[in-house]
Amino acid sequence: MVAAKQNMTMDRHPVTILRKLAALCVCGGLLAGCDLPRTGPSLSEIEAGSTANGGNVHIVSVDDRVTQASRKNEALGFSSELVNSYATVTDLIRAGDTLSITVWENVDNGLLASVGQKVTLLQEIQVDQSGQIFMPYAGRLLADGKSPEQLRQMITESLDLQTPDPQVEVRRLAGDGSSVTIVGGVGAQGVYPIEPSTKKLTSMIARAGGVVLPPETAQIKIRRGGATSSIWLQDLYDNPRTDIPLRSNDYIIVEEDRRTFTALGATGQQVVPFKIRDLSVAEALAQLGGLNGATADPTGIFIFRMEPPAVANRVLGRSDITTPQRFAYVVDLTKPSGIFLARDFLIRDDDTIYVTEAPFAQFEKVLRATVTTINFAALVQTVTPN
Fold first, then answer.
1. Is the pTM for the entire model greater than 0.70?
2. Rounded mean pLDDT of the chain?
3. Which of 190, 221, 347, 358 could be a cystine partner for 297, CB 3.0 to 4.6 Å?
């Protein structure tokens, strides 16, 4: 009787209870019951949410057919209207242009120059809406439709009657007339006049100091009227036909690729920008530092995305889908073709890459939790009076 009471007392002892709980976590395999921390759902939990199991996610294993069927044309390129546009006549002055006029006189006390000076610089002379400018001692002159050389001759003839053999230079500056605006990743943002030497896109970019962004991710965007069109910088350099002629009031934006993907799971949590134009699963994982052999499961690499109806029908071999669908593409790097498929399957903007945890990583967490529990029980036994 005394022995039975002692056994009951020992069963209720805190150390005994904690040891039994630890044994349940290890021997009973109660991973969920132990509420261990983890980076996200397991491979089996994701598969449980598939359409095959009554869920709303299409889980598709990546193969060569799926890789091709999931491709979506996201190529950039200038519209045919831009490519086929004609060049602006750049050597004619128009209303709204801003001019710089320099006059050299051959006398010490000239008409325009200050005392002791022979050069007069008249900057920012605006061509008004009637196409005229006002020139001291020459009066109002019609500049619209004239080339800088023609206007120079007109000014020279007008001043020649009042000062001997004047020398005149006329230059068109940036203004409201035949000019473009360049902003973004160039050496010198600003408003630039369209001149014979800068009448095409690449020459105007060079005039603005060139592109200072990485060429692999730089894009050129043109706003003309109410339309916007973009092209990759490398395509602009590779295809002379895309070096379009500029028009007055064109707005040129040089910017870096703004596409991103989200990384979750065993690779860590972060939003990652695209470093190259066509980013594959293998390259995306490389950007993340590769798979950690101690924590990542190479059989469970998921790419989550919303697919438009056309792509969803191709991938699933159907024709009845009319709304965007949730997809989870699975890449298994342990298969013989896994690395090649990871190289061929392309990541798209706003994709989510999720790498599941390796089973051993969960076992290691259970082991750590068990050891912690046993150590805590031993501590309780040490401080508990007999």
1. no
2. 83
3. 358
